[in-house]
Structures are given as C-alpha cells and as structure tokens.
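Re-running the complex after MR caught last week's input typo. The corrected sequence lines follow. Everything else is unchanged.
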Amino acid sequence: MGTLTPTVSIKDPKLGHGGSGAHPPVSDGGGDGRGENGVPDYGGRLRRARLGVLLLLVTVTMLFVAFTSAYIFRQGLPVLDERTGKNISDWVQVNLPTGLLVINTLLLLLSSITAEFARRQITQEAALAPVQSIPGILVDAERSSPWLAVTIVLGLGFLAGQWIAWRELQARGFYLATSPSSSFVYLLTAAHAIHLSGGILALLYAGITSLLRRPLELRRIVVDITAWYWHFMALLWIYIFALLEFVR
Amino acid sequence: MATTATVHAHAAPQGFIRKYIFSLDHKIIGLQYYFLALVAVFVGMFLSLLMRIHLIWPTAVLPLVGEIKPETYLSLLTMHGTIMVFFVLTTAPQSGFGNYFLPIQIGAPDMAFPVLNMLSFWTTFLAFVAMIAAFFVSGGAPLHGWTGYAPLSALPSAGPGEQLGADLWVISIAIFCVASLMGALNFITTLLDLRAKGMTLFRLPLTCWAWFVTAILALLAFGVLLSAGILLLLDRNLGTSFYVPLVVVNGTVMGHKGGSPLLWQHLFWFFGHPEVYIAILPGMGVASQVLSTFARKPIFGYKAMVYAIMAIGLLGFTVWGHHMFMSGMSPYSAFAFSIMTMAIGVPSAIKTFNWLGTLHKARIRFHSPMLFAIGFVSLFVSGGLSGPFLAQPVLDIPLHDTYFVVGHFHLIMGVAAIFGIFAATYYWFPKMFGRMMNESLGRIHFWVTLVGTYAIFMPMHYLGMAGHPRRYSQLTELAYLHDLIPVQQFMTYAAFITIGFQFVFVFNLFWSMFKGPKASDNPWEATTLEWTTATPPPHDNFGGHTPVVNHGPYEYSVPGAPRDYVMQTDPVTATAH
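Corrected-run output:
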C-alpha cells in the first residue's frame, strides 16, 4: 500500500486538483500509529477519532445514567401529605403522545440507516480514490447518492416531530414544572434533542468540508464517527422512549 | 522512517497569539493550565486568610472587603472550596502537568486531539471567569458551600448570595464539567493510541498511569455532576422540583413540591468522591516518580502500584454514601458504604508501604522535589489515618459537622495534592523552562510549608473532637467555644506565616525562569522519556525523531550498567543482567 503514497502534506493540503486529496488509506499497522514519510496517517487519525467518539459516548451514557437514576429515585419517593400526615406517592403519569413518538422513532431509525449508507459510501470513495488518481484508469463511479443530506433532513424531521410532541404535551396540560414526571419527560427528551443537534452540526460540517474541497479522508473521518454517534443517538432515543413509556 | 507528522498536523506557530494564547501545543496548554491554577490558588488562599482573620478578630473591618457578616463568611467559604477543588486541585496536577508531560513521557509529539485540547483549556478559563464573576454581581457569591446542598442552593430567595451569584456558580461548574470531559477524552485516547514503539503499558511511568486512571475517573464522574448541575439550574430558574420539597422561606411558600434534597447529595457525591481521587492520584504518580528518581532505586512493587491505582479508582465509585451518613440513610446502606470505604485503605496502604520500601536503605538525594515528595507521603499518611474514623457511621455522626472533617480533607486532599504539585514543579521546572530553581529557597519553602500546614490543620482534629462545629463564622456566641479560641488564634498565625512563605515559592518560580542557572537535559539523572529530549523540549517534543523504548521506567542502580541508571531509550545491551 505504501508504494501508492502520494506526497501530500496535511500542512498544505492539495487544493483544487480535481479529485481533491486522493490519498490511499494508510494501513493501521498497529502499535505506534504513525504515518510514513511525512504522509498524514489517516488510518491512525480515524482510529483515534473512533476511540474519541467511543469515550464521548461513555460520557453521554453516564449523563443519562444519572438522569435515569434520578428518575427512578424520584418516582419511588414518598411525599408527606400535609392533610393526613401520611406518606403518599405524588407521581403523576404523563399522558404521552405515543403515536407521534412512534412516528418520530421511525424517522430517527430511518435516518440511522441513511447515516450508515453515507458512512459506507464515503468509506468506499476513500478506498477507491487512489485508484482513480492513476491516469488512464477510470473507476466506474457509482451513483453517489446524497445520503448525508437525507440524514440531516430526517434528523431535522425528528427534531420537528419532538417539538410537535412537546406542543401536544402542553395541550394535554403537562408543562415542564407541572409535576416531577413531566419535568423528567422534558428533561430527557430535550437532553437527547441537544445531543442529536450536535450530530446534525457535525454532519453539516462534513458537508461544508466537501464544499471546501478538504481532503476526502478528513471528511470520511467526520462522517464515520458522526455515523457511529448517530446510531448511538437512535439507540439512546429508543431507551428513553421505553423508559418514559414503560417505567411510569 | 517514522515521522511526527501524524498528530502534529499543526506546524510550529509563529505569531504570539497562536504560539502563547490560542496554542495547539500541549506544552503551552499545560503551562496555561498551570498558571491558571497559580492565579486560582492565590485567590483561594486569600479567601481562606480572610476567613481565618474573621474567626479570631470577628469585628475587624478589612480593607477591600469591609465588614465580614455571617453571610459574607459563608460566601468566602463557598468560593474558597470551589476555587480550590476545581480550579487548583483538578486543574494543576491533571490538566497542567498531565498535558505537559503525558505526551512526552509516552513518546508522542502531541495530544491526540490538539484542537480539542485548546478548547478544553479555554472552556476551563471561561468557567473560572464565570466563577469569579459571582463575587461582583448583586447579592454577591453563593452561600451553599462547595458541595452546593439543595434546597439552599436551589432557591434564589434563600439568601443574599443565592441569586445571580449562585446561577453563575452552577453555570461555571457545568462549563468546567464539559472542559474536564474534553480533557479526559483526550488524555485517554492519547495514552492508548500514541505510545512510542516499545512503550508497553507496563513500561509507562507511574505518573502516566495516574493521569490515565484519573482521566477515566473524570470521564465517568463529570457527566454525573453535569446532570446534577442541569437539574439544579432547572429548579432554580424554570420552576421544576427535582431537589426542592415544599418549603417556606421567610413566611412565603415556595412554588416547589415533592423534590428531594437527597437526590442532589447522591448525584453530587457520586461525582464528589471520585473527584477526591482526581485531585490526589496525579500527586501519587508524581511522588512515585520523584521518590524513585531521588532514592536511586526502582520503585518498590511497580505492578502493585499500578493495580493499587486502579483499585483506588474503582473503589472510589462505590463509596459516595460515606459523605451522607448524616442524611438518615438506612443503616444497612451505611454499613455497606462503610465497608467499601475502609477497603480503600488496602490499596492506599499498598502504595504507602511501597513508597517506604523505595526509600528503605536508599542513598537518597535530598533535593527540593524529593523533600516535597516525602512531604506528600507524610501528609497522605496523616490525612489518611483519620479516614477510617470518618468511614464508620458511629464515629462520623458526632464528627461530621465539626472541624475534624475539615482537618481530614485539607490534609489529604488539599495539602497532600498541593505537595504533589510542588514536587512536580520543582522536579520538572528545569525541563519546562530550561533553568534550575534555587535550591536554598526551595528548602526554606518546603520546611515552612510542611510545618506550617501541619500547624494549621492538625489542631482542627482536636477542635473537632472537642465538638467545634465547622462553617460557623462567630465563635464568641457559644460559651464552650471560648476555650477553643486560642487554638483558632494559633491556626490563624500559622496560616499567616505559611501563606507568607508561598511568596518565596512564587519569587523562586519567576526569578529562576529568567535568572536561574541553565539546566542540562537531564539534571536529575532520571530515566523517563522527557529527560531524553532537549531542554525545553522542541515543538514536536523529540526534534523530528520518535523515541524507541527498550526499558522500564525506573531502572536505577542497575548492576553492571555503565551508569547507575538506565534510560528508557537506552539500547537493550546496556543492561548486563
């Protein structure tokens, strides 16, 4: 693989020149994770970026574990009733707009699938790029589909759906401060929405890098780790939905 | 041939702003953290001095501060604790020295994510600005202590500092959480992925192990504090009732209902206990490194040290309830937390005895870093021994709200960690600035600080056993405290002297930076990778080549070796085993 290595330094990325940044994926090679001959080691960078996103997800998990334990703790907490002097439960079941949330769930799952398509597409592009850069060789470029844009649109659709669900909750009389249970519904959904918005920003960034003709490999790293993050967000949403639906 | 272009996506910057302000270089970022902590520690120390002055001269009207009312005292206490814990004890040992030396010690050209690294420093800085701003808003700084117990922290009407000041406090903590999470993520990735060839996990210096485990603790703990902070902000500003039960403040019924103040305590201490180890573990790493270097002996029981660090980190997550014995928790839970807490004594003792084993029969070189490392061990033992007392509910209940606890955590978490920072400063100063610090001033600084801190914090244990409550601003109102006032006076005088002598350190630091004698590349004859490179290290740490590691981190007094130490990069043949 090393013989194909074009000498492009990351310090001054090759701008313009047609297929922007045609680098072969440098093999991981294990161990120290360094490139050879001054070539940016995108394999190592991808590996580190994936590790970084994994650690980020650990943190996000801790955040939601904390919220969950607070939720369950609060739910089981007896409250002193001033009139009778007895401990009662003041937990009010929130009347969730379940149908709407199911539609949102489907939207998000669909977006997770398109994110995976986007990830695989750019992985393939990155793998084929060095072959394409050889003069005279024409790789039959597969129809490149706008999976990235579709994912962003679906993600925004999910957020819009959540917004509608909140409006519906308000129509049913559940505001943020109405009861502890409704506070948790807003808290969990909003925290998830903020995290998902971060994913959308990352995908937009990937789109902008393609407009700026940054090296394909850089864009690939952004898309790759955002796709993993996105899958996690879909899983996280299913978890939150199940928590709110079944543990109430 | 391997090069350093991989991570060093950024070339050496030229302009002042890119070089020293928004730098991507982990060494500059490490120094930025260090100097932020230096500013913070002086703010924190100044606040503690005000408290100590007020305790023995309650009516004194001070310049700049004016009269210290009980609520002023509480806000001094809150800000002292918060600034010291977050912006000194978390910032300097981990983010400061860790940033500077973790990549060099593992043979990497930089951290794994340099931009993230810069962001985490500037977010920390933002958090510090928000925290300091709490002094200057209407109502002043919050009153709820560094632990921020609800409902006091959750009700803006609960006191003068609990309005905007408390909001700024929570926001600052939340920003700090995000910054620490970014830092932790970076540390872990760097250590796992960027080690030089031959740098196996069991060849890592113990400092790296300590920073690594600390980063894992931070990664798991700060997310929980962040969640607690978000709930607190919602309670304070959006009328939710996560923490606030039905309460009446000054005759007014608050709009909250059914929240649980205990929820805050659980979330806070789930973070808060690991935070204690976040503060102290890097100090343990530095102590191990320095003791081995200046004892000219391999660290006693290297692997035991590594497993002990891990065990302390792991057990640290199972003991948060021991801060809450007073909360009316079930005695069965209290018993479980008590057992787990005392179990931490085992890995702690392993570490202590290994340090002593390292010193045993050694030809010790008593330079200032070594003095501070030995001081660290001393303080860790004296502060640690009061731990098993407090770990038992029957003893904790009478002692909990007394000065006993203040003495305990100041010795073990505060001063011991600070001694770790001092040891690291004296030890690595030649590498960081290319000059030596003044040895005589270092010794004066050490002896006064050691005796002074013991003089301040040891008497607190006696005060506690005499039933002296903590967080009280006025001692004159209660007859039984009258007899204890001389002890408080003694502590205040000791604090004056100790704090005064910290300026010797600051003078030594800045004077040596420009006027100290030039340092060689390896003035302490140490073995780890930072001593193989130039002083101070070049932008990519090793000047274009990548070190190859052939040896463990602490090969001192190797029989048959040409020198009494074998550096990690020495060729394999250097050891004639």
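None of the earlier attempt is carried over here. Residues 152 and 178 of chain B are 25 Å apart (CA to CA). The domain at 21-80+103-514 of chain B is CATH 1.20.210.10 (Cytochrome C Oxidase; Chain A).
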